[in-house]
Write a structure and sequence with these properties.
By secondary structure, the chain is an alpha/beta fold. The protein has helices spanning 10-14, 35-42, 75-85, 104-114, 126-132, 162-170, 180-184, 218-229, 247-256, 268-272, and strands at residues 7-8, 21-25, 49-50, 92-96, 120-123, 174-176, 201-202, 238-240, 263-264. It starts with 6 loop residues before the first strand and ends in an 11-residue tail after the last helix.
Length: 283
């Protein structure tokens, strides 16, 4: 398995030496934001560091700018986080969460891709797969990799703003990763307005997964995604969700399917509805 693939399995990760990979525990619970840190201390993959979705992979202070519930951090802030973890360009990174990669693991994978790192993968099946294979856990605080100083920048070609998202939707190229009831506007547990961007299609991130929480095989994902795209080119596709987190799961699934080049709309639905003048569709 090439480490440039978007997913890595337990056996491959277990075979890597501690000094050749940075393992990042991305567990997070939207209903209990402190739970991820508690679970990390209770037990994590040996040598891992912990990433907090709200503090490390988002900048909540930027919310008033209409960038959604989980705005991307600035390049400077993300650089500081990477330096604190001891990351340097070229170092392999494995991101994992509790099981299916749907929250911050795929988000971190995309963020590292967006700053130019190709040696990054999500652990397929997450911590659940690691434990099921009988691999050990380590309790306590994070690993001891020495902190450093790095400077990264996000590639603007991988990021879509409100105007570009509207254009993508009008062309049938905007894909919403939220569950169907939220997309249809039947329920909305997190945002003040229910519905979806007019013209957006729906591919719930859970459709990328098998029953055990691992991703479907590449051929199956490719068939499903090509059917959804209906002839549109992968590079024209833009992904969104509620706040730009689970959307990265769909982007990763397309990469696994060999359909590279799609982009992310980080503000997503929570950013779209920050302007009451933007249209909303239901049903």
């Amino acid at each position: 398995m090439s480490f440039s693939a978007p997913l890595i399995d337990v056996a491959t990760l277990a075979g890597l030496a501690a000094d050749e990979v940075l393992i990042v525990d991305c567990r997070f619970d939207l209903a209990d934001p402190a739970r991820g840190a508690r679970d990390f201390v209770a037990g994590h993959i040996p040598g891992a560091v912990h990433a907090d979705l709200d503090r490390d992979l988002s900048d909540l202070s930027r919310q008033p700018e209409g960038l959604g519930r989980h705005p991307l951090p600035t390049a400077e802030a993300f650089s500081a986080t990477l330096g604190r973890w001891g990351w340097q360009p070229g170092l392999k990174v494995v991101c994992y969460d509790a099981g299916n990669g749907a929250l911050a693991a795929a988000r971190l994978w995309w963020m590292l891709r967006a700053v130019g790192s190709r040696a990054v993968a999500v652990l397929d099946g997450g911590l659940a797969a690691w434990q099921a294979a009988g691999e050990p856990l380590q309790a306590g605080q994070s690993g001891s990799r020495a902190a450093g100083s790095v400077m990264v920048a996000f590639d603007p070609s991988m990021i879509v703003d409100h105007a570009a998202a509207a254009v993508a939707a009008s062309a049938g190229n905007l894909v919403d990763a939220r569950a169907e009831p939220r997309y249809r506007g039947e329920v909305e547990p997190l945002d003040r307005v229910a519905g979806h961007v007019p013209g957006a299609s729906n591919r719930p991130f859970a459709a990328n997964l098998q029953a055990d929480g691992r991703f479907k095989p590449p051929a199956q994902l490719r068939e499903e995604w090509l059917a959804l795209l209906g002839g549109h080119q992968p590079a024209a596709v833009v992904h969104m969700c509620g706040s730009g987190v689970t959307a990265a799961h769909n982007l990763l699934a397309m990469e696994r399917a060999g359909l590279a080049g799609s982009r992310l709309y980080p503000p997503s639905w929570s950013g779209w509805i920050s302007d009451s003048g933007r249209p909303v569709a239901v049903g």
